Amino acid sequence: MEKVIQMMLESGKVGVELSLYTILPIMVIMMAIMNVLDKKNILSWIAKGVAPLMLLFGLPGLGVFAILQILFISFAAPVATLKIIDQDDTISDASLAATLAAILVMAQANAVFPLTSVGLNLPVGIATSLVGGLIASLIAYKLLKGKEAKQSDKNSIETHHLNKDDSEKKLEALEATHKKKSIIALLFDGGESGLAIVLKSIPPLIIAVFLVNVLKTAGVIGILETILSPVLTAIGIPSVAVLPIVTKFIAGGTAMMAIILDLMKQGLMTAQELNRVAGFTLNPLDPVGLAVLVATGPRVAKVAKPAILAAVVGIIIRGILHLIIFN
Fold first, then answer.
1. Which of 94, 98, 81, 101 lies closest to 151, judged by CA?
2. Which residues, other chains included, contact 158 with Cβ-Cβ below 8 Å and sequence gap of 6+?
3. How many structural domains comprise the chain?
4. C-alpha span between 55 and 38 (Å, rounded)
5. Which whole number is the average pLDDT over 296-308?
6. How far apart are CA 201 and CA 205, in angstroms?
7. What is the full DSSP assignment across 181-222?
8. Which pLDDT belongs to residue 161?
9. What is d(CA 246, CA 164) in angstroms, rounded to the nearest whole number?
């Protein structure tokens, strides 16, 4: 019992230190900046600018906006946008699936920004996210595309460019309310959002670290490393990645980030190994991420299966790119 209590205290110390001294300052500042870019419609302006090109991959204009949200705000940021798409009948199921697939491949900002402090290559992470995400979106779109989807997409494009559909009107109404706030107020709001994210992440981080310590003590991690190491090594992934991968599928991407930060702090993982692993692991395709995103609406849930299948292909491509780049 004494050993268990000691593990609890050590896990709490690691979780709190990571949250307060590493994640907190990065998330508060980055969320403050990104909140200004978001609420002052800069992200929206970028999304509208590239929307015509993204239509080639089956992505509606709002889908592009959702991609920018996950890349530069957090994995939960696209939820509101997905909800608008879910309720918009002019956007086909195929385009909705394309949007979800792309999001599931992307590196989530709430994990990426803190990991840049220990050597994660941000430009490469964003570039490979876009490549893998666009491939996944095209696959998902093709899987669901049919006569009805084609007609729906045609109507959607016409509505977006000529009539301004309901979803765009909702987004513009929301943007109009944000324009009234000053930049200082938006910075404070963004900082508060960053603080809220960090505070919410402390319990799962502590629990994840504790569970990992329990699994280590029980010998489960050692067994998994013995079994999986040859397979991972054969495809170019370091065996030290077993622990973060297991954590990701137990407690999600934020918990995995905490484990990686701890491994880096202890010198058990190098920056090169982190970047090689990142292509396969830095994405919201885990139980926690799926629970949040798929629960957005009934249509999102309906297209989840083909979107996930397409996302797996996109993640594999993204992972291979990381192995090649960081060889």
1. 94
2. none
3. 1
4. 22
5. 92
6. 6
7. S-HHHHHHHHHHHHHHHHHHHHHHHHHHHHHHHHHHHHTHHH
8. 45
9. 45
The one-character DSSP state at 270 is -
Average pLDDT of the chain? 83
Taking alpha carbons only, the member of 232, 243, 299 closest to residue 269 is 243
Q: pLDDT for 183-213, tens place per residue?
A: 889 889 888 888 887 887 788 778 878 888 8
Q: Residues with Cβ < 8 Å from 113, sequence gap 6 or more?
A: 26, 27, 30
Classify 269 as helix, strand or coil.
coil
Look at the pTM and tell me if it is higher than 0.85. no
pLDDT tens, position by position, 79-126? 878 888 888 888 899 999 999 999 999 999 988 999 998 999 999 999
Look up residue 20 and give its amino acid.
Answer: L
Say how many CA atoms lie within 13 Å of 102 toward its Cβ: 33
Domain that holds residue 46: 2-325
Round to whole Å and give the CA distance between 146 and 66: 24
CA nearest to 82, candidates 304, 318, 305, 309: 304
C-alpha to C-alpha distance for 12 and 3, rounded to whole angstroms: 14
